[in-house]
Amino acid sequence: MPRKNLVSRNSVITGYEKNEDYKGAVGLFIQMLTDGVEPDRHTLSSTLAVATGLVDLSLGLQIHQLLTKIVDPDVRINNFLTTVYSRCGAIFEAQTIFDEMKLQKSAITWNAMIGGFASHGFAAEALEFFKLVKRLEVRPECLCSCWVSRRRPEAFSVDGCGIWYRTNVGRHGQLKEAFDIIKDVPMKPDKAVWGALLGACRVHDDVELARVAAEALMQLEPESSAPYILLCNIYADAGCWDDTNEVRMITQRNAIRKRKGYCRAESPQ
Questions:
Q1: Full-prediction pTM beyond 0.85?
Q2: What are phi and psi of 163, to 5 degrees?
Q3: What span, in angstroms and rounded, lies between the C-alpha atoms of 25 and 10?
Q4: What is the structure's pLDDT at 131?
Q5: What percentage of the chain carries pLDDT values higher than 90?
Q6: For residue 140, what pLDDT is reported?
Q7: Which of 85, 189, 248, 255 could form a disulfide with 193 if both were Cys (CB 3.0 to 4.6 A apart)?
Q8: What is the tally of helices (H) and strands (E) in the chain?
Q9: What sign does the CA torsion over 143, 166, 258, 252 have?
Q10: Sign of the dihedral through C-alpha 129, 159, 214, 152
């Protein structure tokens, strides 16, 4: 393109960000500044999204300093700032932006804070914020998934179906704490919640809690064979043969059938 303008540069930066080519986005942004092109709020929003994707606190701070000189932050930009700080573990900075937004908070703002708390070990604060969301009657179906970093899979996930606690709690054997949290959340646990807990029970040989999780799954998905099979395996691993046989008999009585696996192979032309 012989004559590049701000709109075309913004479009390319956005394209890089959407396709997770963060290096390309940062490179073009730096080139813009080098060429003396002043970014606008669209440029800064996209670059903040890049900083979030990279979990780059230094880049986020630089963009924040730049935008304070160029634009007045609106809800969208403040959401990006809250998100990048939360994702990077700068919880104080994230909450400062959050508090300054006062009544302008959206579901995205709340998600960013809840996800930031949960991703960085502040489980109690995450739960308190989620309960506050419920009290303020922010519609649950408007709560999209909180930022769950691929580098930090031990985060809360919140959606319209429910809330589950995917933290080190399950992985490190703190199953009672996980179960307590499941009981305390204001939304009814769904199959993802109980499935995660049941899987953790097998890893850590918690037979009693496995039965609770499996029974909850059986109620949610009465035709699924998965909870029966997992519970049966957990009992067998623990040497509880009477319980193993009981689960097998229940499976037969309820006509539960294991789904057959299949694969698809295309024949050569």
A1: no
A2: -140, 135
A3: 10
A4: 78
A5: 25
A6: 45
A7: 189
A8: 14, 2
A9: negative
A10: negative
Query: What is the C-alpha to C-alpha distance for residues 234 and 203, in angstroms, rounded to an integer?
Result: 9
CB burial of 155-188 (b: ≥16 within 10 Å; e: otherwise) equals bbbbbeebbbbbbebbeebbbeebbebbeebebe
* Cβ(124)–Cβ(93) below 8 Å: no
User: Tell me: the pLDDT tens digits for 188-207?
Assistant: 777 777 877 788 788 888 89
Mean pLDDT of 37-43: 90
**Which residue has better confidence, 106 or 184?**
106
Sequence-separated (6 or more) residues with CB below 8 Å from residue 76: 41, 45
Of 122-126, 204-208, 265-269, least confident by mean pLDDT is 265-269
Tens-digit pLDDT profile for residues 95-105: 999 999 988 88
Q: Mean pLDDT, to the nearest integer, of 131-146?
A: 60
What is the chain's Cα-based Rg?
24
Distance CA 223, CA 257 (A): 8
Q: Single out the residue of 158, 165, 161 nearest to residue 179, CA to CA.
A: 165
The residue with tokens 């949960």 is 118
Distances (CA, A) of 162 to 59, 143, 173, 186: 34, 10, 23, 9
Confidence check: pLDDT of 177 > 60? yes
Distance in angstroms (rounded) separating the CA atoms of residues 139 and 133: 8
What angle do the packed helices 175-184 and 207-220 form, to 10 degrees?
40
Q: Which two tokens mark 248?
A: 């097998």
Report the run of H or E that residue 156 belongs to, with start and end: strand 156-159
Could you give the C-alpha distances from 25 to 120, 125, 239, 266, in angstroms and in order?
Answer: 27, 34, 56, 38
Tokens, residue 104: 């302008």
Alpha helices in 120-206 (DSSP H): 123-135, 168-171, 175-184, 191-204
